[in-house]
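pls design
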């Protein structure tokens, strides 16, 4: 599956990581991130999202300041807002969902902790506008080799940040 041109994607994901936008993942019918037993963190300033979630589904986010909540997954590992194969609050979805981009794994060569996301990631393939883009991809993968025990998504994002700083 076409993940896009790497340099363009990198510029976009850097903006997202810098709080200047949302991911633009071409998900299609994929709901891997919504069905992978992941908690969704919601910050207190996300008033619109909080208004669209049933209060009974949210609980205090462990280790976070008051007002931070977590939306849990159901007994199948699915986000409770995933109904009929789609997000029932898509226009009001949490920032965590708006910023999530599983292509960070494809770019860095890190295998996600969740098998359904890992299967999707194996399908992604970046294109390259030039040799500099190929070199960028190699740099991302080289930065991602250290396994410090952090979750895969943290390691992938950290690798992107380290390459960006170079």
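designed seq:
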């Amino acid at each position: 599956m076409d993940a896009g041109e790497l340099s363009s994607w990198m510029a976009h994901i850097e903006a997202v990581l810098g709080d200047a936008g949302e991911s633009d993942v071409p998900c299609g019918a994929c709901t891997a991130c919504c069905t992978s037993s992941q908690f969704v963190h919601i910050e207190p300033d996300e008033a619109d999202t909080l208004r669209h979630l049933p209060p009974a589904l949210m609980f205090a986010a462990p280790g976070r300041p008051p007002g931070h909540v977590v939306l849990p997954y159901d007994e199948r590992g699915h986000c409770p807002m995933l109904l009929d194969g789609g997000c029932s609050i898509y226009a009001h979805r949490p920032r965590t969902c708006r910023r999530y981009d599983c292509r960070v794994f494809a770019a860095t060569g890190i295998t996600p902790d969740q098998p359904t996301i890992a299967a999707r990631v194996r399908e992604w393939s970046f294109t390259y506008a030039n040799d500099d883009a190929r070199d960028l991809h190699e740099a991302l993968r080289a930065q991602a080799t250290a396994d410090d025990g952090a979750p895969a998504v943290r390691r992938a994002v950290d690798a992107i940040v380290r390459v960006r700083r170079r």
